[in-house]
Amino acid sequence: MDWDEFAVWGEKISQWAADYHKTLRDRPVRAQTALGDIAAQLPDSPPEAGEAMDAIIGDFERIVMPGMTHWQHPRFFAYFPANAAPPSMLAEMLVTTIAAQCMLWQTSPAATEMEGIMVDWLRQAMGLPEQMTGVIQDSASSATLSAILTMRERATGYSGNREGLAGKGNLRIYCSDQVHSSIDRACWVAGIGQDNLVKLPTSGPRHSIDADALRAAIQADRAAGHSPAGIIAITGGTGIGACDVLGPVLKVAEDEDLYTHLDAAWAGAAMICPVFRADFWADVEGFDSIVFNPHKWLGAQFDCSVQFLKDATPQLNTLKIEPEYLKTTGAEVTNYSEWTIPLGRRFRALKLWFLIRAYGLEGLRMRLRNHVTWASEVCEAIRSMDGFDIVTEPIFSLFSFRCPGDDAMQQALVDALNDDGRIYVTQGSFGGQKIIRFQVGQFETTREDVMMAVDVIADVYRRIS
Ligand SMILES: *Cc1c(COP(=O)(O)O)cnc(C)c1O
């Protein structure tokens, strides 16, 4: 393909992108294909001769598109959002075009310097202390793994990387039973082990960890000869939006000299709104590490996960490695690949720059506040439906409910709703029961889209009951 042909297709694809987004409401949110439908239409083996781009793009429309679930659909109420606001998509097109590998300052100074400034813009927007720095990672899972490895190294006097973990006893990590599975997996791969991840029960309106129980668990572990290494708190757990009360957790960490990490992957975005910041993030400045995903609720196209660090030194002592071929000469520079596990890195800061400039913080805040308001309105409407119960009250823009009937009926309603296609929801569990989760957060959703869910739920429930 030459660049003139590229330009022709590039223009066509831009037009296609705009048309796609303008007609999203007419498509079923979740793909309506059966298992194997797409694979059956793809050739078993690669072509020997090159094919024309119009044939390839024609097949993309014909074969691939029916098998896509539309995450940018305004009636996507499942999981958490993975928003891609249009200015962030444009930035990604530019990043893809230049295709720089931004592992070191010198491999693209603009990417490194922009990253530092964007992390600082977000730090200010979220009211975090001036000395906090940070890095943009691909995912919260990677940021959490970095933090847990740091806990491990700090607790072993930075000897784990060198010597391995044999003979180092049981390193222990503490959290509530509402944490995301990425915390479990980070403990697996960090060599800490699932059995050394201590999950404590939650209580109260926001399903928070009990700091006294946390302290007691740590002290009992010390008495048993284990080595406490760190505490993980959450703001906005994935299941039902659980939020820990931060101050008491930090007090325990301070008394016990433990490293702390806060998982705010989803709800961190809301902290740019002073009303939520004041309500949920008192004392947050005490955390050693905080992760939040601008690629979820905020609107920066996937992938983009910001990890803030009170002091980057412990993480650098854990992850930095500098073979000769990565050494740079001249002035002291920041090489962000030393802060993370992967060496290679995309230019992720550009889409934040485009996003924040195009909407301004106030444009982004307005969406988040609207989502929270609409979530509470739709929650009240479902509460008033005959036989329907709200199981967990809205925390930010997430709540859960049950229709009349047993667990099988809840799953039947979820499946029927998603087969219907006008909305998309997913199930969860709480208190030993199946629940139907509902979150509002798609970037272009309107109050009308959100309230339409009430009629769809009533309609589909009537049909299957
Ligand atoms: C989505 C989510 C994660 C995982 O995020 P990735 O970026 O996909 O790794 C972790 N924690 C919470 C609370 C989440 O909502």
TrEMBL record:
Give the UniProt family note: Belongs to the group II decarboxylase family.
What are its cofactors?
A: pyridoxal 5'-phosphate
Protein name in UniProt: Pyridoxal-dependent decarboxylase
Tell whether Lyase is among the UniProt keywords.
Answer: yes
User: Pfam family example for this protein?
Assistant: Pyridoxal_deC
InterPro entries, from UniProt? Aromatic_deC, PyrdxlP-dep_de-COase, PyrdxlP-dep_Trfase, PyrdxlP-dep_Trfase_major, PyrdxlP-dep_Trfase_small, Pyridoxal-P_BS
What the entry lists under Gene3D superfamilies is as follows:
Aspartate Aminotransferase, domain 1, dopa decarboxylase, N-terminal domain, Type I PLP-dependent aspartate aminotransferase-like (Major domain)
Q: Which organism is it from?
A: Cognatishimia coralii
The answer to whether keyword Lyase applies is yes
Q: Enumerate the UniProt keywords alphabetically.
A: Decarboxylase, Lyase, Pyridoxal phosphate
